[in-house]
Design a protein that fits this description.
This protein is mostly helical and about 450 residues long. Helix content is about 70%, strand content about 5%. The protein has one domain (about 10-195, about 215-405).
Length: about 450
Amino acid sequence: MASSTDRPSVPAIPFREAVRTWFLISLQTFGGPAGQIAVMQRTLVDDKRWIGQRRFLHAMNYCMLLPGPEAQQLATYVGWLLHGTRGGLVAGGFFVLPGVVALLVLSAVYVGYGDTLAVTALFAGLAPAVLAIVAQAVGRVGKRALTDPALVALAVAAFLALTLLAVPFPVVVLGAGAVGWLLGRHRPAAVAEPATDDGPPPVIPDDALHAERPSGRRTLRVLVTGLVAWGVPIAVAALLTGTGSVFTEQGLFFSGAAVVTFGGAYAVLAYVAQQAVQVYGWLAPGEMVRGLALAETTPGPLIMVVQFVAFVGAYRAPGDLDPWAAAVLASLLVTWVTFVPSFLFVLLGAPYMERLRGNRSLSAALTGITAAVVGVIANLAVYFAVHTLFDGSTRREWGPLQLELPDLTEPRWVPVAVAVVAAVLIFRLRWSVLRTLGVCALLGLAAGLAGLPVG
């Protein structure tokens, strides 16, 4: 028989109330993972007190360790914590659905009208604004994660490894986890967990274990179900359209990206941008930035930009299908193979992570990974700044160093000006992400109508 510590000692939250709450959260998740985590922190920890601060940070650090969008995985984890598997599926699903619908519509608008002056000018205003938003994310995540000089040094090292040495993301993440573990052994104060928050006791106490115990039978059931749900759509696409079709290529590529790209959405985007532009040719570097700008205007994870990539790529290489039908099918397929692994990783690992919450070595490793994520986000900011603010860049190599340097003689003055305005609105006036994007889009439109170069 399970002991009293195996389940919360307070009444469970009504499932209907949880569904309503997750839906309302999904409509507020603008501004990338930093903003999305802040929404969940405010709603679940500060206002409703469903879980405590330490429980929330433990779940967040575990999701940072996983490949894929950490905010959506965090929602899935907390949903599972509250209501088991159905709670995780509802929380994670609601986190994605509004963005899927919105970005599908925006992708169609881009493909249908992207060559017109008005749309080009609007995107010329949106893309530079994204730079200020990413910079804000660096500051927000850094403030939360870099609580010790050693963690600051770890974030800087991650940035340099990605920017100068082109070290793969998984290597950076694993290295950061190892450094965090070493800090936990030799400088435990650097990676110490925060004290319990001062609010009223949460519904799920910090020291209560989840009722769903880890077991080999449960693990096998979840694994088989997840792999079947993940793989069958790709197999059907390959059977119906051929192994060389854009559907099969995108399904396989984004399935692989879902398991090898660590550090959350910002880390994924840098890798996806490189492969989608340089290897597969699904879209141009400037279009990747525009896709990110679209994703910033919709609720949900920023990784939804992969839906835009799939839509544009399939529209331009539809095979025997109508281009519009191919674009919609490809975008839905890519969305599916991108997020099914996120559910699978969380539902597989959450029961084990609950039992390991008191393991100081594991907590220290997760803290190191969270610090490295700050460097990952900063690396993405540099990548998009080069492709947004300048017309060209060159790749320079000095020994092991590989630098992609912008051509400073060819700045794009309209995007530079809009980026400055966005920075003032975000950092000085503290405007919201959506409001800032709207103003910057109007500035780009005004520049285009005035005859200024915006392309």
